[in-house]
Input
Amino acid sequence: MNVPSLEKHEFDLLRGLIETWCGISLEDAKMYLVETRLREVVVETGCASFGEFYQKARSAGPTLRDRIIDDMTTNETSWFRDMPFWETVRQVVIPEALERARQDGRPRISVWSAASSTGQEPYTIALMLKEMERSGELRGFRADSFDILATDISRNALAIAEAARYDPISMRRGLPLRLREQYFTRDGRISVLCDDVRKLVRFRRLNLLDSFGNLGVFDVVLLRNVLIYFAAAWKRNILRKTGEVMRSEGALAAGATETLELYSSDFHVVRHGRSTYYRLKET
Output
């Protein structure tokens, strides 16, 4: 079927629907992106135009809605993305979380990777904790003293993350050779993460527009490189909800180019080396 090009009024309808579903804000310059990413599903659904597809999508069941969200989600990620940040996590964020847990008499520390994509971010945390355990940096705690929750809206990304099977291109993106050799086995061209690391992370599907009320309370929240895709109102809403599920002395991380102060007055910046993170302001 030869589907006509996406018209501007059709783009406006579709981007409004997508933002309503998952908060992704699409600028005019993204019109070509929407056309190329959705053309295949438009054909598959038998629609003769993007306008007809919009009408079908408006009343879509979860299968089609999830497919559209998956197609429009950017799953850009890598291992140890922004290395100065991970140095701060190892040198400051984790040690401070351990000390607070010790002072509170808590045996466990909770971490939330809020936009985990195909798993590299939460598994980076898990790999770091295994390395810190080996070197005695966890100060009486163990790597499995950490509860790592990883969430994402994309079912496809979560399926890849849970399988923990990565192709050569993914493996070359930020992962040191020593860690590749120590924590992965080979299945043909695919690298498979070892169970000792995999079991440290649990995955769950979550739309960041939904309630965070049943997630738990966290010592560390990684909300990195995701708010850039949301409209300002959704950013404010997500940051408010994030503050509500953080411990009072917890740490919140954003992407290197993201500035939370523009959307929330609940946090103050902490600078360490070449990176920054955030803490809740005292009330």
About this structure: The radius of gyration is 20 Å.
